[in-house]
Amino acid sequence: MTKHLGILIATLMVGFSGEVFALGLGKIEVLSKLNQPFEARVPLIGVHEGEADNLKVSLASQERFKQAGVEYTPYLTGLRFEVVTKEGMTYVRVHNHDLLQEPYLSFLLEVRSSSGNVVQQYNALFDPPMPQ
């Protein structure tokens, strides 16, 4: 019961964060396949011109992972995050140079701004690379 209540509270906190601060995170676009280095984009919603430079993007703390009931795996420590503005779009580039050997990846992305922070859980599934 307590575990379910904790997950519910963490989910509610995540859900309300984007609404309160008008900064949001969109749906993940996975660009890599299984057994390749991880590469993905997450659109930033509600980012005003000039605001992107002041955003701090990172993996959420291990405590947040625990609160949300998401496993913190060793592969996550190699994830790197970069805010990119290109062709009028602002997104978070998420990447890791290590090969991804599991068919899925779950992580919590945190974006901090002067008006607050947003935490969102992402689950990515990976197809094997196409034979050549």
Describe the structure.
- This protein has one domain: Immunoglobulins (Immunoglobulin-like, Sandwich).
- It starts with a helix and ends in a 7-residue tail after the last strand.
- Strand 7 and strand 8 (116-125) form a beta hairpin.
- The chain is of the alpha+beta class.
- The strands form 2 sheets. Strands 1, 2, 3, 5 and 6 form a 5-stranded antiparallel beta sheet that branches.
- The chain has helices at 2-21, 62-68; strands at residues 24-25, 29-30, 37-45, 56-59, 80-86, 89-99, 104-113, 116-125.
- The radius of gyration is 15 Å and the shape is globular.
Order of helices and strands: HEEEEHEEEE
Strand content: 35-45%
Radius of gyration computed on alpha carbons: 15 Å
Q: What is the distance, rounded to the nearest whole angstrom, between the alpha carbons of the first and last residues?
A: 50 Å
Unreliable spans are 2-21
- Report the major sheet: 5 strands, antiparallel
* CATH architecture classification name: Sandwich
What is the CATH class designation? Mainly Beta
By DSSP (H or I, 4+ residues per run), the number of helices equals: 2
Could you say how many structural domains there are in total? 1
In the CATH hierarchy, the third-tier topology is known as Immunoglobulin-like
**What percent of residues adopt helix (DSSP H or I)?**
10-25%
| Alpha-beta classification | alpha+beta
